[in-house]
What does this fold into?
Amino acid sequence: MVKYLYKTLLLLAVISLSSCLHDNNELFDQSAAERLSSTISKEKELLQNAPNGWVFHYFTGEDYTGIGVTHLVKFGKDGKVEAGGELVADLDTTFRSSYDIVASQGPVLTINSLNPVLHNFSEVTIDDVDGDQGDFEFLILNATPDTVQLKGLKWHNKMLMTRLPENITWQEYTAQLNAIIMNIPTRYKVKKNGVEVGAMLISKSSRHSYVSFADEDEDFDISYAYTNEGVLFSTPLEKDGDVLNQYLKYNEATASLETVDQLGNKWEFEGVVGPEYVVSVMGTSSVGLIDAAGSKTYNVNMLDKFQFSTSADWLTVSTEGKELKFTATANDAGKPRSAWVYITNENGKDSVAVTQVELKDLIGSYTLEYNELGEAGTATATITKGTDGNPVLKVLVYSYPQTMQMTWDQETATFSLPSGQVTGKYSSYSVGMGLLDKDGAYSTAYLTGYNATLSISTFDGTKISFGGDFEGIPVGGIGFWAYKTTEHSRSNRLGYLILAYDAVLIKNN
It folds into this structure.
């Protein structure tokens, strides 16, 4: 009886399976491969039918541990994708490469030739096999004429593309996005329907937000990308079952980020506007003025929330509406001079260095002072003007002169020193200069594309200090390495000559 029952059940299962298979054949006129091919064709057409392209919110790092950036992309019928956005300093510059949609676990968008924008975070080396944990191949999860949801094929972060309206140019969108980056505060009170329930800090360099609630011990760490209207969280913020919209819109009048949750509750991230806000909107903590009497103006919101004072009577600060103006009398001393502008309010204090200086004031001889692995060191240095009018820094390394090209920015009274320069010789070997980080863990060595910012200070003689960053890592000095030939690379490198940490150039009288 049991055997008969078993055979009966098995027969019913086979009949049922046959029935299901029959139903599938009736349901689909095409094979799975044909359906996928049709989907790929439709989604490729959808991507191409956005005349002004797409806003691509891109997230790096496994489990969203990296940064969020915003690209602008346009897919052509010729198999080429055009890319720009916040990574490109020149708003008129874009980069083209090939793309395709292929079958792999479903329809996959692949950027299949090198694009400096879209491959920026996915490039790897033998010594760094993960790179910045960015993707260049994306599984298409869902696609509509207005939004495309993607998932990185390697690092699995979900990303979003939204159609860019035709009434805004790429230059306008990027300029608006850059203004958001500069203008939004970094500290916030979190309010739900007007009631304060927590706080949020954001890091503009790491592109992470840190949200804490008064009734919870655990903080929420969420990466974000900027939009031209605010920010987009990489993943939803959820509080007591309330899931917040990932888009937070910036309210310039109140310096707040605003959104709602799925129940309609209003969430406001109210900016705590401290003096660092002024420095952030200015985009610099170092202001340069020429020797002649004159002024410089910056546009900053909410200036009535701050008090300003200066450390020298030759420099005054005035405000009117959104205008913040620094005014200096003529500098007839024949040498640079600096003063502090102090910014204060109930949320703290900050300062901006104003230096009245021109390039001609900085030509001369210097002593390079530095720390090398715990030992103090010095080297002879000079700043001259090259035949093209740009400044040239020369440093004597073990009696061998090393020459570095720089540029001068009068607006900020700073030099820019590019890394990876071939600077001269040491005996029969080629020498190159690279940037060092403050902690002694990283250097750019032979790599190009990075710059140190050299700031001027005259509070105690004329001093030039090394700053800036590479890949978000603060610059702490410069190093010189010897190479077998002028083709500088890791395999061609022999070793370092000088590692000048905490480097400062002191002008000789």
